[in-house]
Amino acid sequence: MNQKPKIDVNHISQLAMLNCDDDEKEKMIQGIEEILKLESESDFLPDNISDYNNSAVSVYDLRDDKPELNKINREMLLSLAPDKFNNYIRVPKTVE
Amino acid sequence: MKKSELLSLNLLEASELLNKKEISSKELTTAYLENIEENDCKIGAYITVTSDLALQTAEKIDTMRVNGENLSPLAGIPFSVKDNICTKGIKTTCASEFLRDFTPVYDAHVIERLKNFGAVMLGKTNMDEFGMGSSNENSAFHITKNPRDFERVAGGSSGGSAASVAGKEALFSLGSDTGGSIRLPSSFCGAVGMKPTYGAVSRYGLVAFASSFDQIGVISRNAADNAAILDVISGWDCRDSTSSKQSLNLSCDITAEKLKIGIVREFFADGIDEDVLNCIQNAIEFYKKCGASIDYVSLPSIKSALWAYYIISSAEASSNLARFDGVRYGRRDENYSSIEELYKNSRTNGFGEEVKRRIMTGTFALSAGYYENYYKKAQRIREKIKSEFEEIFKKCDVIISPVCPTTAFKIGEYRDNPEQMYLSDIYTVPANLAGLPAISVPFGTDRDNLPVGIQLIGRPFGEAVLYKSASFLEKEACGDDI
After folding, report:
1. Residue B85 DSSP code
2. Which among A13, A16, A52 is the nearest to B383, CB-wise?
């Protein structure tokens, strides 16, 4: 990856749900490039490493994926909502 | 007892005096609250101080003690908490404009544990927004200053936590470490900071930044205090799917002469400050003098560690932070005409510059056409680093290294140089990539009398050996016999 990648900032900002004006776009490209250029010679990797067991703890011994009885009630959730109406979180109209 | 004497007690000393009823928790808590009142305007360690709640808890513990109830050694001990750890009914902002008014409806697992043990929470500490930064300059609220020199940074991202301990504004603090966020500020402020093995402490209630790295840990004045707290907060929790059932055994009787210490050749390349290098050499000489065996080892993939860390952590951050959309909780922008605009405006105006940079980088690394070359490649590097560590730990008990190439830098010094800021994490990220425990312990100072931290990295669940090894250095630094 010694070639500089082409960063389509409009596409990336759309995926990331962020607005970028022209000044910010330039800054964002620079910012991404700052991180990408931290790469040194990584071409030494053997091809057979593909299993991402990269934690000190086994990632195959996880809890059962079953829902827990909810201890957080409607009132508590509503208390966090940025906007509410009656007993519901109010969100903008999406369909006219 | 005078206020200055109360503030000088370490955890184990304070606990003993509380137990003997020579001091009360209310006295101790009041001393800390007064110190926060006097000095935090200069340091800025806290975002929220919970004075009333702290005094109520302290009084309750004192009453229980008077009534002869059996209390834990942490009962009545004042502590602070990084502001990305959820506290029921108390604001948890992650130092972000987005969560400025967010009040969780539940406690994190670690908070439940400390509450059950009677510890007294003093407040929530400042940090880099969502844990992204190495200097605390990325907080939406204010910059935390280093208590040793107010012109310098406290380090990050748990800078408020480290500064609260170093500035005697808390007896210990909980922080979180994704790429060095406990060890780096501990090193800069002269405290002891432990990042435990991944999975040793439940992440339930920790606001996620990069879930495969994030780990809650402890910042304290010495290694023994640190171990006492880790003992309380560690252990399996069904609410964190990566929580380990392997328990931490923190007792260890290894002697200094039996220690096998590894020195990673690649860690000692150019770029380390001369004074930092002197301190690490002094630490190595000290271990040698004690009879420990020293071995030079190699971690060839380390040169790609920083890149791999920033690619994977940014990718995970872009995914984790997608939940902040202004709909269910947090900031909602007032100007929007569609749901997409609501998302975009809330996120654009709610997140700071560094957070947006990481989200964009992570989104880029995961996007079609780049995934193989970035995210997947970074994961392979991560796996290789882990296997290289495993080889080293077949013959070594601990690896010694600096925490950071420099001591605390001046506020604003790296503001326009993110690459230099990222390089501050060069010695700390490898332990996160491999999920290993690592501790920062102060050992010596630089030409400006700023503390230098030594990092010791251990085997998975090898925290006991790290605490013991750190305590040898502490005793040498104090001039005690070991």
Report:
1. B
2. A52
Task: List, for residues B229-242, the tens digit of each pLDDT value.
Answer: 999 999 999 999 99
Task: Provide the mean pLDDT of chain A.
Answer: 76
Whether B157 is a known active-site residue: answer: yes
Cβ contacts of residue B158 below 8 Å, gap of 6+? Answer: B82, B125, B127, B173, B175, B176, B177, B181, B182, B185, B193, B219
Alpha helices in B290-434 (DSSP H): 305-320, 339-350, 353-366, 377-392, 418-423, 429-434
In a shared domain, residues B231 and B82: yes
Q: What is the pLDDT at residue B141?
A: 98
Answer whether residue B99 is part of any domain. Answer: yes
Q: Which of residues 186-205 of B touch A (CB under 8 A)?
A: 197-199
Please give the residue that has the higher pLDDT: either A76 or B108: B108
Beta bridge partners of B174: B81, B218
A61 in contact with B at a CB cutoff of 8 Å? yes
Nearest-Cα residue of chain B relative to residue A2: B373
Query: Is B346 marked active-site?
Result: no
Domains identified in chain B, total number? 2
Q: Are residues B331 and B415 in the same domain?
A: no
**CA–CA separation, B169 and B192 (whole Å):** 15
Catalytic residue among B176, B181, B186, B202: B181
Residue B223 domain flag = yes
Q: Residues A12-25: what's their mean pLDDT?
A: 91
Q: Are residues B235 and B108 in the same domain?
A: yes
Quote the ipTM score.
0.89
Q: Which range of residues forms the domain containing residue A18?
A: 1-42
Chains A and B form CB pairs within 8 A to the count of 167
Decide: B129 and B139 in contact? Cβ < 8 Å: yes
Lookup: tokens for B77: 């001990």
| Total domains, chain A | 1
**Residue B211: closest C-alpha in chain A:** A55
pLDDT in tens, B391-435: 999 999 999 999 999 999 999 999 888 888 888 999 999 999 999
Sites in chain B below the pLDDT cut of 50: none
Same domain flag for B190 and B313: no
One domain for residues B314 and B454: no
Interface test with B, best of A6, A24, A33, A38 (most B CBs within 10 A): A38
Give the whole-angstrom CA distance, residue B25 versus residue B40: 21
Same domain, residue pair B50 and B192: yes
| Phi, then psi, of B351 in degrees rounded to 5 | -95, 150
How far is Cα B418 from Cα B424, in angstroms, rounded to an integer? Answer: 10
pLDDT of the residue at B247: 86
Between positions 13 and 32 of A, the ones with CB within 8 A of B are 13, 15-19, 27-28, 31-32
The answer, for B138 touching chain A at a CB cutoff of 8 Å, is no
